[in-house]
Amino acid sequence: MLPDREHDGVLSGVRVADFSRVLAGPYATMMLADFGADVIKIEPPGGDETRAWTPPVDARGQSTYFGGVNRGKRSLLLDLTDAADLATAKRLALEADVVVENFRPGVMARFGLDYETVRGENPSAVYCSVTGFGAVGGAAMPGYDLLVQAVGGLMSITGPVDGEPSKVGVALVDVLTGLNAVTGILLALRERERTGVGQRVEVDLMTSLLSALANQASSTLATGEAPARLGNAHPSIAPYELFEARDRPLVIAVGNDRQFAALADALGAPGLASDARFASNRLRVRHRAELRAILAGLLAGKKARDWVEVLTSSRVPAGLVNDVAEAFELAGRLGLEPVVDLPGAGSDPVRSVANPIHLSATPARPRVPSPELGSRGAGVTWR
């Protein structure tokens, strides 16, 4: 059963025609659905390709990849090459508050669903386009996350110092771009409240990544020198990296001199804080290799969990290198409620990652899991 759209969150009453697929666009529209937007996911025959990305599957036998970014939506199966289906798609776009698409530049125009056409008949629409490399010089470049991590510089600073460049273990650029899309859509809706007029929101994977490179990007622009891989170390802070304890790795993230002095005391080596090589962060960065060797020797004497307890009690940021299951367990112990159970097949719920945005008055309320192909779409009408 669909949630009550009239009283279901801060975005209740916002209607979204979602032509996007795979990850960046669907992640954005799922975030909108969590806060009450009515999202119609328009899928081609066969559905979003991530429906076939299995295993693993959830309690209903549905792809967990697809399910992880499409909860709370309705699915409408439309073949845009069919005249009747295209007419339905156009009607939805012309009645929507928000249109989201991530086709290659030019594809939506071919179907008469591009921004200019939609704006001509629906000037209040917020139209969000998600691309890999923009709609001008990079229009022909395929927007795959791995490709963007490579050409966007992220792989050059990720991985072992003496090893090969590495990708991040999740399609992080897609997720970042999806979050930028949410931000842009909400900003455009806010402006529409003042003017009554929508606008186009454009986000792309390439500039989303460059922005997310943060200090690595700003240092490159300031110095003209590209940063190198440092493994798990930090270019501007030390010690801020991974160490091996007796049984398993842990990380220590010292951000200031007080924390370093506390670390030295906790390790039973208080003289490190006054050592001329390590008396300030700048000096610790300069003598990183020497400091690392000393700390590695001290940390090898105890189990990682014991060190984490000692260091945390001394207000030194430290933690185990958890796997994903352990990370959920930790978040649960901390009272963060990281999982939401949604109604599934029979008595088995579909477990889903909770929305990370917490509003005190109008919280996210995921109610239903991702739709079966074409379900919840029959007889779709908004007006």
UniProtKB/TrEMBL annotation:
Does the record's keyword annotation contain Zinc? no
User: Which intervals of the chain are annotated as region Disordered?
Assistant: 361-383
Give the matching Pfam families: CoA_transf_3
Q: Which GO terms describe its molecular function?
A: CoA-transferase activity
Q: Which UniProt keywords apply?
A: Transferase
The record's Gene3D superfamilies line, in alphabetical order, gives: Crotonobetainyl-coa:carnitine coa-transferase, domain 1, formyl-coa transferase, domain 3
The membrane spanning regions, by residue number, are: none
Query: Mind telling me which InterPro entries this protein's record contains?
Result: CoA-transferase_III_domain, CoA-Trfase_fam_III, CoA-Trfase_III_dom3_sf, CoA-Trfase_III_dom_1_sf
Its protein name is CoA transferase
Protein species of origin = Pseudoclavibacter terrae
